Amino acid sequence: MKRKVCVVVTARPSYSRVKTALMAIKNHPELELQLVVAASALLDRYGSTINYIEEDGFTITERVYMVIEGATLTTSAKTTGIGIMELSTTFDNLKPDVVCTIGDRYETMATAIAASYMNIPLVHIQGGEVTGNIDEKVRHAITKLADLHLVSNEDAKQRLIKLGEYEDKIFVTGCPSIDLAKEVSEKPELDFDPCEKYGGVGQYINTNEPYLVVMQHPVTTEFNEVRKQAETLIKVISELNIPTFWFWPNPDAGSDGTSNALRTYREENPNNMFRFFKNMEGKDFLKLLFHSKCLIGNSSVGIRECSFLGVPVVNIGTRQNRRVRGNNVKDVDFDEVRLLEVINLQLKSNNLKQEEIYGNGDAGFKIAEVISKAKLEIKKVISY
Amino acid sequence: MKRKVCVVVTARPSYSRVKTALMAIKNHPELELQLVVAASALLDRYGSTINYIEEDGFTITERVYMVIEGATLTTSAKTTGIGIMELSTTFDNLKPDVVCTIGDRYETMATAIAASYMNIPLVHIQGGEVTGNIDEKVRHAITKLADLHLVSNEDAKQRLIKLGEYEDKIFVTGCPSIDLAKEVSEKPELDFDPCEKYGGVGQYINTNEPYLVVMQHPVTTEFNEVRKQAETLIKVISELNIPTFWFWPNPDAGSDGTSNALRTYREENPNNMFRFFKNMEGKDFLKLLFHSKCLIGNSSVGIRECSFLGVPVVNIGTRQNRRVRGNNVKDVDFDEVRLLEVINLQLKSNNLKQEEIYGNGDAGFKIAEVISKAKLEIKKVISY
Amino acid sequence: MKRKVCVVVTARPSYSRVKTALMAIKNHPELELQLVVAASALLDRYGSTINYIEEDGFTITERVYMVIEGATLTTSAKTTGIGIMELSTTFDNLKPDVVCTIGDRYETMATAIAASYMNIPLVHIQGGEVTGNIDEKVRHAITKLADLHLVSNEDAKQRLIKLGEYEDKIFVTGCPSIDLAKEVSEKPELDFDPCEKYGGVGQYINTNEPYLVVMQHPVTTEFNEVRKQAETLIKVISELNIPTFWFWPNPDAGSDGTSNALRTYREENPNNMFRFFKNMEGKDFLKLLFHSKCLIGNSSVGIRECSFLGVPVVNIGTRQNRRVRGNNVKDVDFDEVRLLEVINLQLKSNNLKQEEIYGNGDAGFKIAEVISKAKLEIKKVISY
Amino acid sequence: MKRKVCVVVTARPSYSRVKTALMAIKNHPELELQLVVAASALLDRYGSTINYIEEDGFTITERVYMVIEGATLTTSAKTTGIGIMELSTTFDNLKPDVVCTIGDRYETMATAIAASYMNIPLVHIQGGEVTGNIDEKVRHAITKLADLHLVSNEDAKQRLIKLGEYEDKIFVTGCPSIDLAKEVSEKPELDFDPCEKYGGVGQYINTNEPYLVVMQHPVTTEFNEVRKQAETLIKVISELNIPTFWFWPNPDAGSDGTSNALRTYREENPNNMFRFFKNMEGKDFLKLLFHSKCLIGNSSVGIRECSFLGVPVVNIGTRQNRRVRGNNVKDVDFDEVRLLEVINLQLKSNNLKQEEIYGNGDAGFKIAEVISKAKLEIKKVISY
């Protein structure tokens, strides 16, 4: 009898981060993949991640609509509540032997609670890291609900041990996002025209010329400053006068502030040098980053994949605060002058060394192996 | 401007455990109490805790119905989901400066998630302890969501520090349940007739004769064994042939198993020596315990209040597994022979010393003080 | 390809009323039965209807927990809301060709809305009748959402036509509850001992002696009077001094008032002549009625099955207000004196004629036939 | 004591349709307005109706987020379920004496169920009309739940009487949307530049030149054809080569199909003659219509306000099927050739007579009067 492994994917970045693990689970002779696509991963407005998933050859076992529209802190809470109600039905129907949740987005708590309350062993992928804001609370809370931990590096493992988890329940697999980065670093040609393939809106960008990539997500504990932060960033980038691929933020509380700032700018500056995208297939996105002069923003892609790819990153604000990072990253606050300064510094860096801080490229394989072999238990008591 | 302190009470034992703190908050010149009564604390079937709350002179700010009937693991998850949806509306309306949640029952996670996701500082009362089963997961997960920790003893404090919480956010206040125990120990007369005052069903018990008290809750990770465990316990107690006050379990998953076993026994043994109660006012319950020969079951009252009161306790099974305990407690498994043996042993013990393991009787006062003075912040990063 | 017929059963009386139809659908060569058991039909407290369903040989396709505990008007509304959320997932998974809902209980609206909003043809069984209170609103509202109407008699059909429904969408099948009544009337021996077979609590009743049956449900628009009405009824029945089978009410708003009145009476009158039951298998219940001196209360069983069986009925209050009724029924208000008078009158009646007001005994068969043949459409416009 | 009147506004068109009634209730000496803004009326994506409401001087009593994002039939059902859960809490807190719901959108059922299940008298504005699809089912179902009916014309009143409602519970007030139309017809100058005032995207339109207005909503029972219908319409309008104000559809199931067709067209035809708007303040919109050559689509504005304003309308498809209409309306199907033909015909019509089919301009005043005087009752039984 194969182990039934239910993975719940709730957002675009979670999918890219877990894709090679999904593939390895699907192909593992002792595992059966139950793929649940939920929350913003289903929504057109956030880039229809589900389409990429299907194009990658996965069968969707169940779709779970759970996002209450509104993008306020209250709707984030309510979305999580609905997620628990809906996912508990899903688990009742699918009867998985083990449930996997990824990372630290607010709605992943719904997966963690539904599974642990229903006595289904819970695997947490990417626990043990440190960042800032609500993600930080969510990540460690899920650690305390999880029965098995698959982490990116030794640093994360040691943190989980300090958190009272047992060493035999923690496995350093690396982060599956690095698996993709490895494939891309082995064959990095930009073999497509982003504007043509992905549409987007705004100026056409010729990728033979130098270009930037921007990806900035709102920080939910700084809810009221989101719009001002977005405006500062837009101002600085537009002064650089370099063609820029700009990615819309995730549907977190506060994303409407960012979106509105971007829309206003576009309407007032019809001749800007930006092109806006919702989403890109994972490898295409990494190729785009590989050839870019610099990634600017607060996406964890800058910390993880870009350290492996050797892409310069300007990391803004508190969102990635204390994550382990490589030499490719320079941190800066929302200060106009400093921001410009640091970006210009990074634009001059080159020949960055590739670093294996978040894995060496076989995380997906290792994850499937661990899940197929690990003893599955739900009783757990803190180690001290 | 007074600080608005919203306390969410979801069950009978949580109320007794927090009553003196509620009183102290209510009377504190710099605090305004917003008392939300939710979940099983509202329900007749579980002893209408809300009536006791009102009799104690509190004004209920809001009632939140959230229990999905069914008492399965799935309905526990769904109840939590609904709790998040409902409590987020409540917090939106009440706009508290700080939210307090108590202990580790599954539905308290709803309070913790709604508050933390809405950027309202979260106080956790009674974190840092160790027990077993789902409570253990819930308790530590809430710790990771909470911004301020009010704990029972130094042991709990040290555990929270190990869990990565900052020392200046942890306050040893003692457990408010001990405040009541102290009052009772100073004036322990059994000044009421339990059967007359609280009704209940079954045999009349004369409290001048020796009697037992039983309080056994189902353990949710042992869902399928609940009925069998209940039957074992019933068998052993009935063999003792001592009048017994028996309290119905909380509405957790599995409680129907216990309830059914009890009902079947009653119908088949009309002349049993048990009397069944849903609930008792907190002090009355402690007085009843004070004069009992022994408390049998897995209630945390045995570990906490009874150590202060010096009442012998037979603690059965895994539920209180690793909680710090006094000399009054003897642990035993669901083994018929051993159970009978250990109970008989405890029935002979006397002159137990009072121990102050969970506080010395002014916890309510200290809790109100801390909440009135503490710096309220919602950003938090693990300490290592 | 068989038509997939999803029937949602939410309560004890709905099941008895539809049982022969379920059997006929299950056995029909062109139909596939999807049986969803939901709401109070799942709950132990309301007689575990689901056990009877399984004993009758049905396979439960899905269980849907949706009752928010509390029994207030607000929880009735919330239960319906949750029902819509849950049943829409159920229909998404089961992909029925047609959904059936029965009668007029408040939570059946959840079935009707989920199906009609999802463009699934909706069959309403037992529309077109007239009664009082919220049932009346619900019943006619469901008529306006339904695409096909299977009614008990010509009177109901004519009412639906007046309501703007098209004649070719209305089928007089009779009420399936009469199918059971017919079977019982053909073989009416009371071949079991009710107290022995069903337990219950209270006095043992010898069915060879004359006995009464009481079944009184709270009327939700008279919420505040429920307890007083229950007390009046208890007083009158106890004065009659005849052994009485008393059935607990449905879990409507207000049922706690009735339940509490009954519990108080029991405790204050330990030597009463009542025996209390939650539920009985449908035919057993009809046999019990057949041999009773009189049915007292406001159950629709008195109007429907009892007219076919020729059992005297005292129908109290507004609940069945304008339902078509036979000569076996005498109506009365909650007036102590009149109530006693009318009951005594009925106790003297005998040799009542059987009447076929709600069908002649083959409704289940006809219902399956109509569902297998009818054109299924979801577009509908009022006929005038 | 003033009567507390709770009006729940869930969408852009409902607000315009009820605005003068809200104003009259607010200003009525015997009434207190409780204004609940819910569902898509809160959402930026659908034109932030709430901003217009606040600009009009109303105080929002409560905001209720309830839209589950996804725009499928299933999410429509779930949105309604959540609406019931949320609005029942709202009504519990506000304790209105009467609740008003408007029209026939799917989510208005949530208002109707929450109020009627909680025994709060329910007023339905705009019942008794006839159209097509799910609106038709919803409208008449709400009629059966409502206690008081305020209708647009005698035709609607007669239909309600046929539906079994009592004549003394039905009041012909006219439709409040006509109140605005009357004000506009008395002072119709187009005193603003739509592109400047409302932004929108696309071509700038000079309102001194002839222009069209398009407003086409998806029909939920024709879910799968929505995209094709949108493409047909786009093709025909673009062939006309007349500047066109195009309004985005409501967030019904299917609206994503329309939106996607519009986006694709825009990207492939950068030089099209369309300008796209989400929303306009009610009177501005009517002024825009007043001066347009023709309104094309399936909005009820064409049937109602435009008959009073004397604006030519091409009404497409089934959505307004059987609504009473004036001479200004020509109906047509989704046939390319016929569509073009009928539009061209309407473009030649002029000097249309104003008709008072849906009221004569004082509906708001009459509605407030009726609500202040009417006897409020919740018991109702069908009249036949």
Structural features, described:
The structure is a homotetramer of 384-residue chains. With 384 residues, the first copy, chain A, is α/β, with parallel strands linked by helices. The first copy, chain A, folds into 2 domains: 3-175 and 359-373, Rossmann fold (3-Layer(aba) Sandwich); 186-348, 3-Layer(aba) Sandwich (Rossmann fold). Helix content of chain A is 43%, strand content 16%. The first copy, chain A, has 15 helices and 14 strands. A 7-stranded parallel sheet of chain A has the order 3-2-1-4-5-6-7, with helices on both faces. In chain A, strands 8-11-10-9-12-13-14 form a 7-stranded mixed sheet, with helices on one face. In chain A, strand 10 (244-247), helix 10 and strand 11 (274-277) form a beta-alpha-beta unit. In chain A, helix 7 packs across helix 11 and helix 9 (226-240) runs parallel beside helix 10. The first copy, chain A, is globular. The interface between A and B is large, with 54 and 54 residues.
Largest interface: A-B, 54 and 54 residues
Given the structure, what is the number of helices of chain A?
15
Backbone shape of chain A: globular
Order of helices and strands of chain A: EHEHEHEHEHEHEHHEEHEHEHEHHEEHH
Number of strands of chain A: 14
User: Main β-sheet of chain A, in a few words?
Assistant: 7 strands, parallel
CATH second-level architecture of the largest domain in chain A: 3-Layer(aba) Sandwich
> Which bin fits the share of residues in helices of chain A?
40-55%
Structure class of chain A: alpha/beta
Strand content of chain A: 15-25%
